[in-house]
What does this fold into?
Amino acid sequence: MTINIVDYLQLMRAPAVFTALSNIVAAQLIVTEGQIDWEIILLLGVSSMCLYISGMILNDCFDYQEDLRDRPERPLPSGRIPLKFGWQLGWTFLFIGLGVAVMVGLQQLLIAGFLSVLIVFYNAVAKKQLYGFLIMGGCRYCNWLLGLSTMELQWGSFILAIPIFIYVSSLTLLSTIETTASNKKFIVHCGIGMLACALVIFYLQRHSPYANIISLLALVVGFWLVLKRLYTAYQKFSVMEIQQTIKYLVIGVIPLDALVVLSAAASWYSVTVLSLMIPGWFFARSLRVT
It folds into this structure.
């Protein structure tokens, strides 16, 4: 079997993998107050990225018949990567992610285990159901909790992960029309979700000793940029515009994480999170994000 690394990077959605890592880095910067344990953040980061990659690969495996019809250029339906090997690769990354999580502790294994169940359930069942977007949001929510899990999870921990849940749920809802551009109402619903996300971050700012004018301005600018992108997609409604918007919003997970850090910890920590946009955009120039 001839190996083309670009095909495998595409199958794994390499540009978006860094958004999973940013969840972990952001959460760890908050719970450790910048006193990073590099061994732990490496293990949690590897676990998170492996679980994310697994989800992306299994997504294409479960969608194989649909992709033969609608996306024949993708690595699996085109035959560039055999379907059987795709299944093997997807499950391998899933179990590696779980194995690395247990190296940190039992609590991390439990969260990673629940995340794995959600990943498989979403790809196998929920994706085609009305509630599917909430399950995908739940996957990201659990990923944030995985990053927070090195400290005792308290009420505040569960609130910190709410923005990513709302953001990804809204993004996933929009992605249901990425190949059809069938109804503009999905853009409106996504915009409402983004407003709810911004309001939760504003709540975090109001109750944080680290809140300042910089964090508020960053929130306003970030929300405006998202709305501007959604408005463009609404005005120029087409498959290409929807796909470009989804790409924009997926990479936007990283600045979202930075905003949460900016609201709950010292402001310079957010720069560390934002730096993950560099490899994300680098890969996004030549590889599909969705």
